[in-house]
Amino acid sequence: MTRHESVLWHGRRGAGTSPALPVRERRTGAGAPARGPMTAALAVGVLFAALTGCSSMDDVRYAEDYAGHEPLHVLGYPSTGSLGVTQQLVWRIADDSPDRLAALATGDGGEDAARSTADNWIEAFGKGAKGKVAADFYDEGSERQTVVLYFQDTGQRKEINVRLDGNGGDDGWHVLMDEPSMKEATAEPTWAPRTPGGSGASHTR
Question: Which residue in 103, 129, 132, 156 is deepest, having the highest Cβ count within 10 Å?
Answer without folding.
Answer: 129
